[in-house]
Write a structure and sequence with these properties.
alpha/beta, 5 helices, four-stranded parallel beta sheet, 4 strands, 15% strand, 137 residues, 39% helix, Rossmann fold
Length: 137
């Protein structure tokens, strides 16, 4: 298949996700950039803001921002469907959403609620799972 390659990437407003989006867009990929951009009671710091996601997308014409919670499988599926609807293809799905909830403590001292937040942010509602039937490349 020829044409512009398309990816869905989560965790895009800053950190590793933003770096992945920037690299892919710089290499000519179209990117659906998914970020929650809302506070979470299980995360002990401010997560990325809607402004950070919008700023990233504004700097990268190849990126389309989507504000969605990766814990919501319907929202993740919606991002995958947006890629297919807008670009008629999907070549990659990258889960870069994550949180740092250890707070300097050893992992074995982490409260159950923090473990749940950590696991929920990275599994099972990944774009890879939602995209399995949609890959075209």
């Amino acid at each position: 298949m020829t044409g512009q390659r398309v990816a869905v990437v989560t965790g895009d407003a800053r950190g590793i996700g933003a770096a992945v989006v920037s690299r892919l867009a710089g290499d000519g990929w179209a990117v659906i950039a998914v970020g929650r951009c809302a506070g979470d009671p299980g995360v002990p710091y401010q997560v990325a803001s809607p402004d950070q996601l919008a700023t990233l997308a504004a700097a990268l014409p190849q990126a389309r921002p989507v504000q969605a919670n990766v814990r919501d499988s319907a929202a993740v599926t919606g991002a995958v469907e947006a890629a297919q609807r807008e670009f008629s293809r999907l070549d990659a799905a990258i889960a870069a959403a994550g949180v740092a909830v250890l707070g300097g403590r050893p992992a074995w001292e982490l409260p159950d609620a923090n473990w749940r937040t950590l696991i929920d942010m990275t599994w099972p509602c990944t774009p890879e799972a939602s995209a399995v039937t949609g890959f075209t490349g």
